[in-house]
Amino acid sequence: MNDKRKAVVLLSGGIDSATTLYIAGKSGFDLYALSFRYGQRHQVELQAAEKIAALCGVARHITLDIDLRLFGKSALTDDIAVPKSRSVDEMAADIPVTYVPARNTIFLSFALAWAEVLEAGDIFIGVTALDYSGYPDCRPEYIAAYERMANLATKASVEGKQKLKIHTPLIALTKAQIIRQGHKLGVDFRLTHSCYDPSEAGEACGKCDSCLLRMKGFKEAGIPDPTVYRIHQ
């Protein structure tokens, strides 16, 4: 009989979510990975998520379809140019156009629903408040508020059978620290994908905020970045 606790892990296919998946596994949980095809222009990340989930030996991996292009208003889901070649200061100046309205709220709600069905009291999400693009739904106060709401919203918590915990193991780490931790855990970074605006063949642009933060993180971590960027070809 398997007595291990179950955890739902949000898995995009990037460095942060892959490292979070490995942390959850190292913590002794049975892993249930959840990804989303939400109309993002960088759907190649879902291929990365599949490979990472398979390599990590998850109990089940689900990819849900939600078409956030119907709402738009983001460079990831609409005909809006992805910002390129920005400095870190420029990235931090305001909430960028790559922010997808309410994305983490939507993702966490599906994770909450699946966790309730699985009778799992733990959800892992790879948000980080440092070295990031200023998204409001990556802040500690947002996660704390969502966790409070979740514990008012489920049958198990209302009946006192289970308290839900949202784990954010990366929230206070820089990208370099995340990469070092992932490297230590054995994450195969060759499988991960970060680019917001990849080519049709899935090649990283090397100029969007996500690519630049990835390159900066690997450089500061002192670990070679296995990504082949179009700007270097």
Protein topology:
Layout: E1 6-10, H1 15-26, E2 30-37, H2 44-56, E3 60-65, H3 88-92, H4 103-118, E4 122-124, H5 140-153, H6 155-158, E5 165-167, H7 175-185, H8 209-221
Parallel strand pairs: 1-2, 1-4, 2-3, 4-5
Q: Can you offer a commentary on this structure?
A:
38% of the residues lie in helices and 11% in strands. Helix 1 packs parallel to helix 2 and helix 7 packs across helix 8. The termini are far apart. The protein has 233 residues and is α/β, with parallel strands linked by helices. The mean pLDDT is 94. The protein is built from 8 helices and 5 strands. The chain has helices spanning 15-26, 44-56, 88-92, 103-118, 140-153, 155-158, 175-185, 209-221, and strands spanning 6-10, 30-37, 60-65, 122-124, 165-167. It has one domain: HUPs (Rossmann fold). The radius of gyration is 17 Å and the shape is globular. Strands 3-2-1-4-5 form a 5-stranded parallel β-sheet, with helices on both faces. The longest helix has 16 residues, at 103-118.
Distance between the termini: 52 Å
CATH-level-2 architecture: 3-Layer(aba) Sandwich
Q: Which residues sit in consecutive blocks of at least 5 with pLDDT less than 50?
A: none
Average of the residue pLDDT scores: 94
**CATH third-level topology:** Rossmann fold
Number of helices: 8
Give the class-level CATH name.
Alpha Beta
Could you tell me the strand content as a percent range? 5-15%
